[in-house]
Predict the structure.
Amino acid sequence: MTLLLSLEDICLNMGGKPLFQDTTLYIGEGEKICLVGRNGAGKTTLMRLLMGEMEPDTGKRTLYPGMRIGYLAQQVAFDPSETVASFVRAGLAGDEYRDYLVDMVMGPLDLRPSALLGSLSGGQLRRAALAQSLVDAPDLLMLDEPTNHLDLGAIAWLEDYIAGYAGAILCVSHDRAFLKAISQKTLWIDRGQVRTLNRGYAHFDDWMQGILDQEARTLQNMEKKLEQEVAWTQGGVTGRRKRNQKRMDNLHALRAKLKADKAAFRQTIRTVALDPLPAGDVSKLMIECKAVSHGFTHDDHTQMMMKDFHFRLMRGDRIGLLGKNGSGKSTFLKILLGQMTPDSGHIRRAKTLEPAYFDQSRSDLDPSKSLWETLCPDGGDYISVGGSLRHVCGYLKDFLFDPKQARDAVSTLSGGQQNRLMLAKVLANPGNLLILDEPTNDLDMDTLDRLQDILANYEGTLLLVSHDRDFLDNTVTKVLAFEGEGVIEGYMGGYTDYLEQKAQKTGQKPTAKAKAQAKIQATAPAPVTFEKKPDPLPFALKKELEQLPKTMAKLEKTIEKLHEDLAMPDLYTTDPARFDDLARQLQKAEEDLSTAEIRWLELEEKRGI
């Protein structure tokens, strides 16, 4: 394999703090690499170092002679008067071999060649920039969040395109399913180091957990050694007279290292913190749509978003909305909320309805206001969170913000930080209907994991628009698919279940990708009202099935509490008997949870939903 680009012994300080220390990495010809790390870890900075746009403080960058690098940035520079076709063709003048790619990529990315860049939305501009980077076909193409603003069909197309791409790819994305599909090598930015896994992202979680487990064992051993050294220094007058100064110096150094290492380790495993979201009282039937139709007229052509649509949103529903960009998902949400009036039909809403809405455009964020003012628009130092008052700085800390940022303007935040701020604002009081329109854009994977946990514990009703397949599978139990021309179909399950059911419904065989993703055997598609068949379970088993989710939730809380107790500093060394007892309790709780989950699946299958 030919070496295309390398960084060797790179060190870089930013704002007086080390961002990279003694970093070395290599990129070879044709490698498909994913780059992961928390927001702020330095992913974009590392790409700029690779591009040569930034110079490291020390170290060496080596570029193979004649190699071309392409870069899809999160921010797009453009001339508003230029057409999409001209923009995508930039740099290809006279290159007939690659010029044919222009038309090939604009179709799947839903781009109109004659449209002016100034008339495009932010998402459309990103797709145009992606098209330009693909047709340019550099030897190394670096993609920073390429799936943002892409619908599921376009993401699947991009996966296939990358699989056949001759050059090397370095990609940053929060979309786990996408990274698993495209990557053969993983780079992890972790506390100033770039760790390399010579396998794809599908193997990343186990590899990362192994590293963290080893660090935890190392810290535990350091604590034991520190205790031994402290005991030696307190060994009486004779011991103090004879103590060796070098050993004391080593003790102080060990204390300092342990403190720094523990702080870094805690930061690595830190996640967004939030108590379970409550839901207020609400009627069983929350929203009902009867014969609702709505469309938009463009160039004398009416595009239907929904046609004679009948739908009931019931208390406790967890529904994911799927469909191409522009198919009507956001319009549907605004009609449900009463922010838009449909062309025809009737909508009835429960009087006790209390919606909370996460708008993908972040329209509720005023760039000129501070984070503090955003969360406390009426002034004061406290924000009501689920009925309890929290100091605004403490609440911001729950969402991984430094309290020092509280007085900073929203305009100073990155896209991911703005999304976290919007989530903090919405999740403070989620009401009994939580509507999230593309909440996953620009979030790092750790925050996505925590958001999944938060939504899993939400007791209200959820409507979710997302193009993140893994997130949908872990969050929703029903799907509304916007198929185009006003057709909306309902399916039971998550995204993987939707793929299987749709394949059965259309008479097509599931693709290899869908089979690999499938977790359970698909069921027949349900009508949009999601009405269920008569329950065949005997009364006793039915009651057992109703009780199991409560049992599993209780066990999950017990397991979480036991993990917290076991993580208490010095517990292993100060009270080993209690540590062992808690460990046994944890093992028993995890076994009970596994048994309950298996029993729940058995009863669900017998019920035949």
Summary: Residues 3-206 form a domain with the Rossmann fold fold (CATH 3.40.50.300). The chain is about 40% helix and 20% strand. Residues 576-607 form the longest helix (32 residues). Confidence is low (pLDDT under 50) at residues 232-243, 512-534.
